[in-house]
Automatic annotation (TrEMBL):
The lineage of its organism: Bacteria, Pseudomonadati, Pseudomonadota, Gammaproteobacteria, Pseudomonadales. This is Integral membrane protein. Coiled coil: none annotated. The chain crosses the membrane at residues 62-82, 94-121, 127-146, 153-175, 181-202, 244-265, 271-294, 306-322, 328-346, 358-379. The keyword Transmembrane helix applies. Keywords: Membrane, Transmembrane, Transmembrane helix. The keyword Transmembrane applies.
Length: 383
């Protein structure tokens, strides 16, 4: 197994990361950092389309920019390197200590590129489209559930591009846009429905995931004390949970990237909303409240989905209702208290051949649908 894992660890993943890093830097230097409106208006140009594709990597956190995408990938690469060498500063072991990060990132990136090859034409109409969804959904979940290897990675990417992306496209365009719902509801609902179908196919046709390589999860050196330092680390790691990284270095790269993008061009990240600071503050508060309130669950289970409001409720509320402190605080607190236990309740009822992330994304959809209008009422605005 170690010999078979060596290729993607040492060569493939490094080449992919290097290529994306060069593309990100080139797009920043050559493109001069246009704002989001300019980006959308020029998607027929190769450089702008490239920026959009790379920006999809940070789309799950609602940042939509190549700098946080680059930061996320570089931070995750550093975390994986540190994990392989046993450095204490690696933080929480990336990809939950499975050692599957090279396969996971290969499958996720391939799913993203295939999605653009098949569905990139949907951007021609000038409206935002969920082209990013395959990067943070089924391909990664399949690798974590069935193991690494080219068969699982490629089939996960194919199913992500063929099932997840069109499902989210349909829900966004024929449900969210007509009913004026936050598009995240369509994004994550598409992930859930398509992933259910994909896992049923994998159960019916096991050859799709045959010979998946499942290295043992790395043993934890010592039981965490769940004190102040652990709490702050956990809050930071939550920012990179959605792409299944769950690591402080990856999150730090993501956050430094979006803050740098905001400083260089405030109208470039986060869809040109200029609400980056309010969004990040709400996301951090949501994770902090969740980690503190659900500390007992963290202790008993070892992991709990306190990241959910970071990538759904809080940014959806801020973008829909504005960046007032009432919106930021209310969405963060309500999201932190409601979404994680709902996700666990749904995941418990899933069959064993399905990854539990399906419960997480369903919780995002349900919680966003219910909480955002409530926040609008509490904040004194229109729901």
């Amino acid at each position: 197994m170690e010999q078979r894992l060596a290729l993607p660890r040492q060569r493939s993943s490094s080449l992919i990361l290097l290529g994306f890093a060069l593309l990100c830097v080139a797009s920043l230097v050559l493109g001069g950092g246009p704002d989001y409106g300019q980006l959308v208006a020029t998607l027929d140009q190769p450089l702008s389309r490239l920026r959009w594709i790379v920006g999809d990597i940070s789309e799950v956190a609602f940042y939509k920019h190549e700098l946080p995408a680059l930061g996320l990938l570089l931070g995750a690469s550093l975390a994986h390197w540190a994990q392989q060498r046993g450095h204490r500063w690696q933080g929480f072991a990336i990809c939950y200590g499975t050692g599957l990060w090279p396969w996971l990132i290969i499958s996720s990136l391939l799913g993203l590129l295939l999605s653009h090859a098949l569905w990139g034409w949907t951007l021609d109409g000038g409206a935002w489209q969920p082209t990013f969804v395959a990067f943070v959904s089924l391909p990664a979940a399949m690798v974590l559930l069935f193991g690494g290897g080219w068969r699982v990675a490629i089939n996960g990417a194919l199913l992500g591009a063929v099932l997840v992306t069109p499902a989210s496209l349909l829900l966004v365009n024929y449900l969210c846009y007509p009913l004026q719902l936050p598009v995240v509801i369509g994004n994550v609902s598409g992930m859930a429905l398509a992933s259910v179908l994909a896992f049923i196919l994998c159960k019916r046709f096991p050859a799709l995931v045959r010979d998946g390589q499942r290295p043992e999860v790395a043993a934890t050196a010592s039981q965490p004390d769940y004190g102040l330092v652990w709490t702050l680390r956990r809050v930071l790691a939550d920012f990179s949970e959605a792409p299944f990284f769950g690591n402080e270095l990856a999150s730090l790269g993501l956050l430094l990237g979006v803050l740098l993008a905001y400083v260089l061009a405030p109208s470039a990240p986060a869809y040109g909303s200029q609400l980056v600071l309010q969004m990040v503050a709400g996301q951090g508060l949501a994770s902090l409240v969740g980690v503190l309130f659900w500390r007992r669950q963290w202790k008993e289970r070892g992991w709990y989905p306190t990241y959910i409001p970071i990538v759904s409720i809080v940014p959806a509320a801020v973008l829909t209702l504005g960046g007032s402190w009432q919106v930021v605080v209310a969405s963060a607190v309500l999201g932190a208290l409601i979404a994680p236990p709902l996700a666990v309740a749904i995941s418990r009822r899933l069959p064993g051949y399905m990854h539990g992330y399906i419960g997480n994304v369903l919780s995002m959809a349900i919680s966003t649908l219910g909480i955002v209008p409530l926040v609008g009422l509490l904040a004194g605005g229109n729901p």
